[in-house]
## 1
Amino acid sequence: MSEPTEEHQCWNCGEHPPSQKAARSLFCQFCNSLQAPSPDYYRFFGLNKTLAIDPENLQRTFYQMSRLLHPDRYGRRPERERQYSLEATAILNDGYRTLKDPVRRAEYVLNENGFRAAEQRSSEVPPELLEEVFELNMMLDELKSGDDSVIEQLGDARQRFLSMLSGIDGELETAFRGHDGAPEGDARLKVLTSIRAILHRRRYIQNLIGEVDRQLASRNA
Amino acid sequence: MELFQIDFSGQSPKKVVGIDLGTTNSLVAFMDLTGPVVIPDPLGQNMVPSIVSLSDDGHSFVVGEQARARLITRPEHSVYSVKRLMGRGVADIQDEIKLFPFKIAEGSENVLRLRVGDRTMTPPEVSAQVLRKLKANAETHLGEPVTQAVITVPAYFNDAQRQATKDAGRIAGLEVLRLVNEPTAASLAYGLDKRQDGIVAVYDFGGGTFDISILRLREGIFEVLATNGDTHLGGDDIDNRLLAIALEDASSEWGRDISTTGEAVQLVRQAVIRAKEQLSFAPEANIEVAFGGRAYQRALTRAHFESLIKDIVDRTLAPCRQALRDAGLTPEQIDEVVLVGGSTRIPLVRQAVRNLFKAEPHTDLNPDEVVAIGAAVQAGILAGEVQDQLLLDVTPLSLGIETMGGVVTKLIHRNSTIPASASEVFTTSVDGQKNVLIHVLQGERELVKDCRSLARFDLKDIDPLPAGMTRIEVRFLIDANGILSVSARDVRTGKEQSVEVKPSYGLTDEQVDAMVRESFEKAEEDFKARQVREAQVEAGNILSAVEKAKANDAWLGLTGDERAAVDLAVNQLLAVYHSDNHRLILDHIAKLDSATVRLAESMMNSAVQDALKGTKI
């Protein structure tokens, strides 16, 4: 997101914020009316651009800001402020949903940094998984051809994928700390590149589990 | 943070009422100085049956308890359970039509039209009659016009059903400040009662709909974590099950098919409902019907009743489990289950709740009134009267758009806190393309044909450029009512793009406007007429009091001038009694009042003297 370059002015009282910091405030310092909200989730929540976030603190901020911004609080206010309240609360809720979930949070930061996280082709097999995927496809083929003896093996494979997922969550946490500790710029981008690969692997494994569940379900049906 | 706001207008802000617009019964409540209060009708009843009947003059409507008898005497003029038809298309209701005596009128393609007597009415218009009755009850009770309301809807209502409810409010002359989900409203009432933080499940089994909502209550914030339900599951289904059995039974006993006779069906329906209600308190009940000189009677034990309805009750459990999964909780993590809706009085339902949540359900609140009470609290929040509580509700259904191959791409997932938004960039696929059509759907399934079509949006007047050059960002915004709006912007130019909306079901804005205009004129008329009637009642009271007083000795004790002044005031009041100006009547009541001050005083004195003498007056 680009920083607003045009000079900010309160829509209600016409005053200009005295400082850059005040310009970022959701409320006019002079008349206290709600201003057009910024769509940047981190800025909106008043957070530094770190990937590790304390969930308790985030929830507390979410509740506090809900009290200040929710449309229910603007029932008797001017139409323009009601509209801002709706916009701001939508950003607050979208942002909370994104930031409280580590994967969505990482995807958001990737997107903000020009990575197209979700666009990486999901058909590309992550190299670490080539062997597993090959075996799995064989088992699924056998299942489709009516060989029920592979059901147990499939269950084992599913279990392996699940433990891989929790392993990945640990990897992510480490990578988050690496990102937050690195200086802004190329060093961070390098960590983000590796995070993108981890997320891709994670999504791929989730799809595999989904596929196993689907096949087993259609077998049982 | 808040500035002091001083109101110099000298008028107290208008009251916002909370309305529970139910399938079977409806209620209206408001925030009194002491807390939320349900407003009774003039006869003292809190519940207004959601029954509307076109009166024999063909113009006015009978609503509520008075309309119930007309279900039997005038079945073609009467409608009940219309909430089941809100926001639905003809194809949706084929099953209902078999069981309900509704006649669908011509021209029901985009919006359902019911034949009511010689008129056709859309479900929002029928609901508006119930709302007008509640509005009138509130106005009589509060002594001021009521124009703003919070209306509750089942949590699992989709966009079209919500829009239809909002339309009903507008037609009734009410500005709907908020649609609140019924279980969430109930949780507000519960929170007021308990004032304790924790995780609460609200199990709302009403006349026509079932909802389950799971909430986190924390320091006055009521955060819905997950909601689920079935908008076609309720006490009506139990009634219809019993009705079908009893009709068949009675028909075979009497040797004639009575299932096509509207009057007989309604009589049997009311009899099975009575039996159902009795079975919540007694181990056995009788279904008794007298029709056409014949009598039908059957005993029904609770055990038999439970075996007949078990599958209906069990249908509430899958949504409960899904809501728990979506909230990421196990039954053990639920601190309390709050029961809402009349159907939760059925012992089998309570047993099912107990088994699933492994907890004794909370039954301290009146299940019939708790939603209305909560709606009043929400009205208080919107009016700024309630400061420490805030609802954070969710959208019950995922929102998506149609993409290649009839597949739905989800943009906003179910159980997202609302207001919520999502943006999607669309591009052109043909050189010089000027329009992009977007199909918006609601539902959890993968394919377009399995989801609910909400609307088609046409992005028009796109600059004709080579394919793929134009990028249009479309923003979907679900507001705090759970209703969708769409805006679009050309990414390259930043220009707002016009969006033309074609709702798949429901009334257009123009249609609602026309209905509003018609009813607004009527509402004004109604309010005036009621004010006049009330003034006339007051005038009648004072006139008969003066008439009685003339028989008192005190009358003779007045001077001739005083007596003449009273007579003059009486005659003047009688002269304006039949005018349609309530102010005029009230003015003359005041004049008569002041003309009789001396009379009243001396009557009082003589009463006191009589009392001192020990004689009876």
## 2
Amino acid sequence: MSISDKILAKHISSTYTNKKNNIETSKIEKSVTPGEFIQVSVDYIMVHEQLGGRIAPEFQKLGLNHIWDPEQVVFILDHWVPPPDVRAAKMHQRANTFAEKYHIKWNFGQNQGICHQVLPEKGFAQPGRLIVGSDSHTTTYGAFNCFSTGIGATDVVNLFATGELWFVVPETIRVNFHGNLHSNVLGKDIVLQMLRDFKTDGAIYDGFEFGGEGISQISIDSRMTISNMVVEMGAKNGIFEGDKLLADWLRAHPPPTEAPSTLQTILQKSARPNSSKTSYSAPISPNTPRFISPEKGYNYKKTLEYDLSEIEPMIARPYSPDNVIPVAEMEPIEIDEAFLGSCTNGRLEDLRIAARIVKNHTVPTDVKFIVIPASRDIYLKAMHEGLLEIFVQAGAMVEYPTCGPCIGGHMGVLGPDEICISSSNRNFKGRMGDPSSQTYLASSATVAASAITGHITSPPQEKTRI
Amino acid sequence: MIHNSPLFSPIVEGRVWRVGDSIDTDLIVPSHVLTEQDYTKLLEATLESVIPNFAKQVQKGDIIIAGKNFGCGSSREEAVFVLKELGIRAIIAESFARIFFRNAINLGLPVIKFPASQTIGKQWDKLRIDLIQGTMKNLNTQQIFKFSNFSPFILRYIEKGGAIQVIKERLHL
Ligand code: SF4
């Protein structure tokens, strides 16, 4: 079995029976085959504003006075925080009312950042887990050797009511990375290269599995970007093998044991490291993580090899994330906005390299350079490292963690015909504002380089790795 | 299988709406209406930048024929909800994005994967689909197309009009 198969098999629901549910399989032993319909129990269900959208009213139609397991549910507001208008505020109220009424245990409120950054930071994403979320980019947690994918509102209702969900076991595409990355190349460039090769429908229903000795070259932040954007190729998930880098990260982000109110206090304390810029002061878990590895000789749907040394800075032109070419081949198109943030690239790695590029430069007055760290934790760390100051000095607008411009919600909505270079993941028509606006997707390094020149610009080669 | 749901009709008959590849969820339901509690606002905005006035022109029973990767993008179930609510009774596409496909099954809207979707018919043709037999007949050209039958698992959701009914039965609600 592939890593994904193993995790799914482990989560096959114990109450699952063939006859009763009329499901076309008789397997209840812990093994799965691609294409098979299975009924699974999940470890965590992440919900955001959608809770106040379709989830709450649909669940209430059932007339149940409890949800299956409030301890499984992680709730966080992130898309429209703080609310830019009355409608968004009301949506938050509906979501909050539901969360309180049904005693959702992991209620993180609206000041922690974007869900896909916060869940791993708080230790929810652990190897071998099965996590679903009411957001398509829930695939991000694949970076942590766990199976995670996006689901819709009725799926969440199903889980809230029965604790179970149907899945079709995906076929697995294996990707092996080799070689060394160039200094100005990030996970975003790798996944854009993959999008160029696979196109947006090249992996529909499939799962990606990433490994090879080259993964040691890819930071956890960059792996999250890759897993985040596998959904842009239609994939169900994108899971990385475990290694030392991941073990270190996991030790620094142990699984949660306390509900958020207590957790917040711990984090407030831990977010003020005394000296070292890179140290995390969360408690060290004594356990070595138990990674899930694929079965030797497993028959993948496809196996691809990527030589990291051949990957260069890439950019996706409007209106599709697969409309990709090397940045070097781009005309120097003038931009109105540069957005550095989102669950794809608002991490510390991104802020560090961008700050290095914009330091001692000034953003042209006709360019809106918007910087939004992906989480409160990153915001604090960037503040301590002096990165935010560099951005503000350069003329950027640094905002508090939210999805904001990525979804055309607030804090930088594009007007008619405006052109934006963005570190986010989607450049569909109208995604970031007016339908006539245009978004180019690129790495944080390319966004930063473009912000200071005012036109689409390749990032500089650095002497040392980012 | 016994098809005994009183609401379920295996025959869908309606006019064809032709759309292209990669109709994403932002195009189906733009995010500027997503925070709306009033569903009529969502309905009005459906596909607004692809087919102006779609919401006004669409009729109950209509069928969408699309190219590749229909419904790609976000997990917003509203994308299925609005189409169903406006009267769309089936969507045929070369391929569907995964979450859209799930959401459609969960809301009981038949989604038919048919690689040669472009050959079935043109805009405004009349189409009759038999969901059980797995056939589509273009009533203008009299051509008949066969698609692979729904699995019993998926057919059950379609028959019941969606997952909510299945959950209710399971929990005896
Ligand atoms: S940052 Fe963008 S892609 Fe990520 S969760 Fe928010 S809206 Fe979705």
